[in-house]
Design a protein that fits this description.
The structure holds 2 protein chains of 2 kinds. Chain A is an all-alpha fold. Chain A has 2 domains: 31 residues; 214 residues, Orthogonal Bundle (MetI-like fold). Chain A contains 9 helices and no strands. In chain A, α2 crosses α8 and α7 packs parallel to α8. The longest helix of chain A has 46 residues. Chain B is an alpha/beta fold. In chain B, the strands form 2 sheets. Chain B has a 7-stranded mixed sheet with strand order 1-11-10-4-9-8-7, sandwiched between helices. Chain B has a 4-stranded antiparallel sheet with strand order 3-2-5-6, with helices on one face. Chain B has 8 helices and 11 strands. Helix content of chain B is 32%, strand content 23%. The chains are: A mainly alpha, B alpha/beta. At the A-B interface, α6 and α7 of A face β7 and α2 of B.
Chain lengths: 257, 293
Amino acid sequence: MSSNVQRKIASVALIVGLFVVWEVLCLAFGVSDSVLPRPSQVFVTLWQRMPALWPHTLQTLYTTMLGFVLGVGIGIVIGVLIGWSKLAYDVAYPLLVGFSSIPKVAVVPIFVLYFGAGTVPAVLTALIMSIFPVVVNVATGLATTEPELEDVMKTLRATKFDILWNVGLPRAMPYFFASLKVAVTLAFVGSVISETVASNRGIGNVMMIASASFDVPLVFAGLFILAALGIALYGMFSLVENRITGWAHRKTEFAMG
Amino acid sequence: MNAPAPIVPLASDAIPAGPVVEPSHVDAYVELERATVTYGRAPNLVHALAETSLRIAKGDFVALVGPSGCGKSTILKMVGGILRASTGFVYVAGREVGAEPVRIGMAFQNPTMLPWLSIRDNVMMPLKIVPPFRGEYRAKRKTEFRDRVEALLAQVGLAGFGDKHPWQLSGGMLQRASLCRALVHEPQLLLLDEPFGALDQFTREELWAIMQQLWITRRPTVLLVTHDLREAGYLANRICVMSARPGRIVDDRVFEAPRPRTLAMTYEPDFVAMTQRLRELIVESRGDVPATV
């Protein structure tokens, strides 16, 4: 336990230390705040501009979460279909790989073409970004069921659905929750890219406008907000993961000889 | 394919093992009729099991021994309905396998407990799936079924471990739980694929006694696959020796020692002579290896 606390203190110290070094180096070399603002300037900007930034933060959070939730839902369905049936896996996998290897930023103009600039393309970009990790992880989790366990289930005359429900899905849970952490950060990337390219709201848009007017501290303020949101969501899903799939992280210290 | 396996009763043996009187077609609980199993396609065809016929009486305890890869597990899988015979027939309870809703329990060398469930829920899993328990599962899982699982766990020495999770138990304890899972739905047929193979000698012997006790009290028909000849002699009423791949039964003998059997019995000269003879048969059947040991 105490080593755990030590590790936490160390990682907080690392973050604080990074900011301090950044601050000191900027002061020492007299770096202009239109090139690289000091962290203190960024925090001041954050504080002063928060009333204006807050609606944009909410907008980004909203598009990200909506796209993420939809993407995860679709990802689960596709993942279960693919993991369930060897045929579906073999048939659909090349398509999925092709689909996932398209740089997602390239599809934003298409979404804008169909739906106009604004919220919808941001949601859709977040959605397609978050699908793939979920699909791959759920399918992998389902496909790694121990063959002996399946034999046990077959001798019990379990239906395919019984096996999926009692063995496959619980086994896929750790993979699924691991993929959520990845998917939620990717969803952020998607929505911010889309906001940057084509939107009049959201943190991505704020950063775009700020950089156009050389308001570099504001650009960094946007960056900090994104980092904070990303960390918060990542932490949230880690917590959920540990609560639900603690069995996958075996506590060997309890094992008996 | 090969001719039906000649059954070689060894009259010279000085042990109470005798020629098998197979149950008639009508009485047999499990019956293989000229069953063969081949894997793969024409150029890469693998004959896992040569033509094999075997009849097992209801309530009998039969051990299958033989060299690795001789098709022992293949027979088990056919009887369990996991694998289909390529030719020939497999009957359980007088019907072709899969047609009759026979309750089957199965345990492997690997206990295959589900890590996210407690031991109790793991053991209860068959009740959730197999009719007629399936329909009553929701209503009885906190009462009658729970008591039944607890009683079974107590019988194998795991009283009080129901709430533990699999990672908290040792290999031997997990294997006991695995036996409970194989028995909880009162199977008429119990299929054991080297269930004690991964355990140390002492734990293994302990579990033999437990297995024997479970068989005596419940009397399922048991088919046990094992490498351990002492295990086969200790547990089984009848021992079938299989040849190397493609497997067939080369020796089939009844072993009638009084029950409950004891570990001391396995060190008596008669018993040792029998396991010695089984060993020779297996070494001979391997063929490719010089029979010096």
